[in-house]
Each structure stands twice: as C-alpha cells, then as structure tokens.
C-alpha cells in the first residue's frame, strides 16, 4: 500500500501539474490491487513503463508474432531489463525475472485455469504473488532475502506482539488505504455535482497540508530507482 500510494500519488500530482500547463499525460496506474492475475496487474501498474518496454523492446524483438521459443526469449529479455531499469542490483534483476516467469506460466497455461476459478481466489492468488514480489524488491541483500523468506514461510512467527500493536495503531489508515486502492471512492465521487466535488477537494487539500506540516521528512520512495 505504501509503495502504491507513494508512486501513484506522485504520478497523479505530475498529471495534475501537467493539466495546469496544458499538457495531458497518459494514465500511469489503474487500481492495480484489484487485479485477478499477474498479467492484469502489470497492465494496471506503471503503465507508462510497460508501454515503453512493449513498444521499444518486446515488439521489435518480434513480440507474439514469432515462434514459442522466441516469445519466451522476448518475455525474459523484457523482464530482465525491467528489473535492471530499477537498479543495478541482483534483487531487482531477480524481481524482474520472478514476474517474467509468472507471466510466462500464465501465458502458457495458468491463465486459462485462473479464468475458471471464482474471482475471490483469483484475487487472493494475485495479491499473494504481488506481496512476495515486493519482498524481493525491498530486500537488496540476497542473503538477507533468503533469511527473510525462510522466516516468513518456514521458521518464523507470522504474528507477534509488535505486529498486533502496529496493526491496531495504524488500523484506521490501513482501512482507508485499502478502500482508496479500489475504484469505490472515485465511482462515488464522480456521481457528485461540481460544487460538491470542489468543496471536497478543497477540504482534502487542507487536510493534506496539515499532515505535511505536522509530519517529519518523508522522501519519495521511487527516487531510489
């Protein structure tokens, strides 16, 4: 949720500033956490980057209009470069190839199986793999990454006192963030008249300023990549 709102919010601000100066920038996020597969997730997450790799790497390599073997090669080249684009570190390359493998499996056979499952299980499947992907993305030391994954799935304790404390201490923000990561809020907002929209936006702007003034320095996460 943090990396989504950090990056999506930054993109929205850039788009809004562009509108002020007469520029219309393409959409960069389309509620990626409502996805029901990893293929759908990457159609909704960082859409501009996906478009660049599709237009300038995947299609020139032959895209889907070549043999199966070359299609597999094309997917791995794109996702190797996607990982490398985020940083010259092994965890980013592993992160890119991790999603490349999943996308390839979905393309070959898993996608058809997923389509037959109830939406709830498809959504759970996608969120689980996305969360594992963010672990690979966040932990830059491969040794620490191995220990982290082992602790998470094999030898660790899933919930402890610190987990419960942090969860309840931030429960209100987490709930709001989960709701806001879906189209629910925007669908309700669009039904309002312009006067009500402007009043709500002004109130939200004031709340944002209050939070910014009262908070400590909180740099944009994606400046690292």
Please give a structural write-up.
It is a single chain. The chain is mainly alpha-helical. Helix content is 72%, strand content 0%. The chain contains eleven helices and no strands. Helix 3 crosses helix 4 and helix 5 packs antiparallel against helix 6.
Summarize the structure.
This protein is an all-alpha fold and 225 residues long. Helix content is 72%, strand content 0%.
Could you list some keywords that capture this structure?
72% helix; 225 residues; mainly alpha; globular; 11 helices
- Portion of residues in beta strands equals under 5%
The quaternary state of the protein chains shown equals: single chain
Give the helix tally: 11
Helix content: over 70%
N-to-C CA distance = 18 Å
Look at the structure and give the mean pLDDT.
90
Number of strands: 0
Structural class determined from secondary elements: mainly alpha
Structural Rg: 20 Å
Residue runs with pLDDT of under 50 for 5 or more positions: none
């Amino acid at each position: 949720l943090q990396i989504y709102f950090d990056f999506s919010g930054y993109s929205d601000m850039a788009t809004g500033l562009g509108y002020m100066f007469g520029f219309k920038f393409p959409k960069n996020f389309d509620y990626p956490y409502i996805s029901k597969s990893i293929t759908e997730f990457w159609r909704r997450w960082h859409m501009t980057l996906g478009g660049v790799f599709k237009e300038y790497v995947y299609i020139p390599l032959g895209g889907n209009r070549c043999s199966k073997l070359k299609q597999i090669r094309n997917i791995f080249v794109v996702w190797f470069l996607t990982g490398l684009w985020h940083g010259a570190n092994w965890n980013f390359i592993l992160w890119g190839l991790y999603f490349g493998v999943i996308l390839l499996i979905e393309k070959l056979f898993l996608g058809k199986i997923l389509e037959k499952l109830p939406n709830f299980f498809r959504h759970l499947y996608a969120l689980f793999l996305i969360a594992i992907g963010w672990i690979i993305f966040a932990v830059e030391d491969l040794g620490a990454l191995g220990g982290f994954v082992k602790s998470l799935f094999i030898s660790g304790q899933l919930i402890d006192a610190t987990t419960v404390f942090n969860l309840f201490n931030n429960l209100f923000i987490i709930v709001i963030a989960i709701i806001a990561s879906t189209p629910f809020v925007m669908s309700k907002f669009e039904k309002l008249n312009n006067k009500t929209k402007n009043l709500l936006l002004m109130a939200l702007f004031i709340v944002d300023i209050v939070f910014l003034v009262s908070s400590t320095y909180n740099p944009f996460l994606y400046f690292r990549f």
